[in-house]
Design brief:
The complex is a heterodimer of chains A (249) and B (196).
Chain A: H1 5-12, H2 18-30, H3 32-68, H4 83-95, H5 100-122, H6 139-148, H7 152-165, H8 170-182, H9 186-198, H10 204-217, H11 221-229, H12 238-248
Helix pairs in contact in A: 1-3, 4-5, 5-10, 6-7, 7-8, 8-9, 8-10, 9-10, 10-11, 11-12
Chain B: H1 12-19, H2 23-43, H3 48-67, H4 77-96, H5 113-136, H6 141-152, H7 156-163, H8 167-188, H9 190-195
Helix pairs in contact in B: 2-3, 2-4, 3-4, 4-5, 5-8, 6-8, 7-8
Classes of the chains: A mainly alpha (249), B mainly alpha (196).
């Protein structure tokens, strides 16, 4: 009888026939390496069963925490609209009395500036998930730090390195997409953020917010609205999605 | 767990409140403990935001463990919570090579001996699950899909159909993916005992 991880899972699920089961158990008694493998597979099964059974209630708990938490702890992602926006509007008002050509320049700048703010206001990801703070020398740690510092120019090459190494890892796709968005490579950011959304990971709803921002910057409002409308009411990002939808109208 | 089992503590009702996602219970936990955890983390080379992360993670870990019916409090909830949070923070510090943790244990009320084992169990279980999940996401998306479906579904034919692959392909690929995952987990599992 060939024993591999698949056989172990079948054994743990009680899916081996009597002969196979007896042979497996005989091998198990003598083989400490196999015992260790069985332990790993047993945990895998337990975690998966637990996740299936508890995912809804954990999500509900996280939503409750999201409501209560800001009353007791400083929230990194919570930002007021920068005062500069107000300043620019006043500046614009003042300019209304000046020459028409100057008004056009300022208005143009104002639109551009306001567009950037929407990414700054809604696009930061420093509170996404429960980021592990690892070894300082590690590329991922440097990347997380750069993102937490909102230093996306530094984050971009680090995120690229990681996605080059592991292009299928959703977390790296997310960080790379976010870094591209914040360095104004909107078109390029779309495909990476879409992958992070499709991964249905812990951060996928945040990725959806960023994806909507990228579409918005590319003047594709319809796509942006579609992405935001897909964010569920139970999501922690639902309120942000609704705010963005209002802004985009 | 302790060899000398103690009767369940009255604070198990807080666990029940947590399990039913009771807003008042959870708010009460924050009211009583947020400041203590914040002070502890800040006094031990952390920031308020890190304290916030730690607080949330601790609640979720305790919730998960309670939901698996593996957790019965034999001491006050608050000291149990602090013990789990402190254990987690020590681990984070260890990993980040930050400065040593201060010895001013009086910042927190620790060492309720009877609950130490239970707090340790919550921490180790959460750390183990985290490590397993980290290894799972290192695999290709296809492998992750196959493993998740395999662990959840009962019939392999059903899994093959759901994934749109042949039964033979599924068997072969499943073995490869599982073997890779188990190997990866085993190669890093020593960190559970060194770091957690």
């Amino acid at each position: 009888m060939t024993i591999n991880s698949n056989t172990i899972i079948l054994y743990l699920k009680g899916a081996l026939d009597n002969t196979e089961k007896a042979a497996f158990e005989a091998a198990l008694q003598q083989d400490t390496d196999l015992q260790e493998q069985v332990e790993v597979c047993k945990n895998l099964l337990a975690f998966e069963e637990r996740e299936t059974a508890t995912s809804e209630s954990v999500t509900a708990l996280k939503n409750t925490l999201a409501n209560i938490h800001p009353q007791y702890f400083k929230q990194a992602g919570e930002e007021k609209l920068p005062a500069k926006v107000v300043g620019m509007q006043s500046w614009k008002k003042w300019m209304m009395s000046a020459a028409a050509a100057v008004i056009l320049i300022v208005a143009g700048y104002s639109v551009f500036y306001s567009g950037n703010n929407i990414v700054d206001t809604y696009g930061h990801i420093d509170t996404v998930g429960l980021v592990e703070r690892g070894n300082e020398a590690n590329t991922e740690t440097k990347l997380v730090k750069a993102i937490q510092d909102k230093d996306y120019k530094t984050a971009l090459p680090l995120a690229k390195t990681l996605t080059d190494q592991q292009p299928d890892r959703p977390l790296y796709q997310f960080y790379y997409g976010a870094s591209l968005l914040h360095t104004k490579s909107y078109k390029e950011s779309v495909s990476w953020l879409q992958k992070a959304v499709d991964a249905k990971a812990l951060f996928s709803d945040k990725a959806a917010i960023l994806l909507a921002l990228a579409y918005y910057k590319l003047d594709d409002k319809t796509a942006a609205v579609n992405v935001l409308n897909n964010i569920q009411t139970t999501s922690e990002e639902y309120k942000n999605a609704q705010k963005l939808l209002k802004k985009m109208k | 767990m302790s060899n000398n089992p103690l009767p369940p503590h009255i604070d198990n009702r807080i666990l029940q409140g947590l399990l039913t996602n009771d807003h008042a219970t959870i708010d009460g936990i924050y009211k009583r403990l947020a400041e203590k955890i914040k002070q502890y983390v800040i006094h031990n080379n952390g920031s308020e935001e890190e304290a916030g992360d730690l607080f949330q993670e601790t609640i979720i870990d305790i919730f998960k463990q309670a939901q698996n019916n593996k957790l019965v409090l034999t001491c006050p909830f608050d000291s149990f919570f602090i013990m789990v949070a402190k254990r987690k923070w020590l681990n984070i510090l260890k990993k980040t090579y930050k400065k040593q943790v201060t010895n001013s244990e009086d910042v927190l009320l620790l060492h309720a001996d009877e609950s130490y084992a239970a707090a340790e169990a919550v921490h180790v279980e959460a750390a183990k699950e985290k490590l397993y999940r980290e290894q799972l996401v290192q695999l290709s998306e296809r492998c992750q899909e196959i493993i998740k479906a395999t662990l959840q579904a009962k019939h392999q034919e059903q899994v093959a159909e759901e994934l749109g692959v042949s039964y033979n392909y599924l068997r072969k690929k499943k073995s490869e993916c599982l073997d890779q995952l188990v190997t990866n987990i085993r190669s890093v599992s020593h960190t559970l005992y060194n770091d957690y």
